Amino acid sequence: MQNGGGSRQNFLSPHHGSTAGLFARLVNTPAPSLAVIDGTLCQLARDGTRRAGHTPLATAIVEFQRGPMCYFVREHPHGLLPGIPNLYCLDGDFRLQWLAEWPATDDPCASIVGLDNDTLVVTTTRGTVVRIDAASGRLIAVEPTLAAVG
How does the average pLDDT of the chain come out, rounded? Predict the structure, then answer.
């Protein structure tokens, strides 16, 4: 049954299989629109104006991907202090949750591939696949490129 934009479900009473008089309204809220504008991650209002934003930690945001209640962000690697990774996670309010534990200071993150269960999969500039715990940013595995293996 549709009512006011959400669906309504009856909760059954444990006694006699009748409704208990409680109703739940399921509301599907669309995810906010996001864009990178002038190197800044911006949340956009329906009319296209900036509603909120996250300025980059050091350089410019070049890529982001939605995660479970968070955003994975990759910044341009040039201009970061040595040892600071260019991959990090923000919560839904754009607060920093973690900086990635990164395996090599001379081979920054080049691409966010996606989520594989609770693992964030990314590649480096040399093509190495790096697996990171999506909840904590801790390094799980480094898979060398085929050229490096052979």
Answer: 83
